[in-house]
What does this fold into?
Amino acid sequence: MIGVDTNVLLRLSDEESPEEKRRARKLVMTHAGRIYINELVLAEFVWTLGRTFKKSRREIVERIAILLESREFIVARRAEAEAALALYQAGRADFPDYFLAQINQTAGCSGTASFDAKAVKSGDPFVPVPA
It folds into this structure.
């Protein structure tokens, strides 16, 4: 098994860096089924798609779904990522917020306190920080 950083995932579909795209795809083909995506990488990947690459929510959902469904990748906290993806599709908060909240819920937390207005407005699993 080999772990990858965020840039490797981003390069898999990056048309601006054809050489890095080729190398990233070669890595995936060489290590198919043994490529580990940890929680931080998944969250940073999604954040970068939205903030840097200006991908739409729909495009981000598609990219996350591809990673989760692909046999090439072992995604850490897959169940939490799948639950976060469902919430992200229907809600207002960002995927990393939902992912964090799902990880917290698995750890036994009753909710995730946040100052993020979008997250708190989305309701469960977020709660506002008391005044």
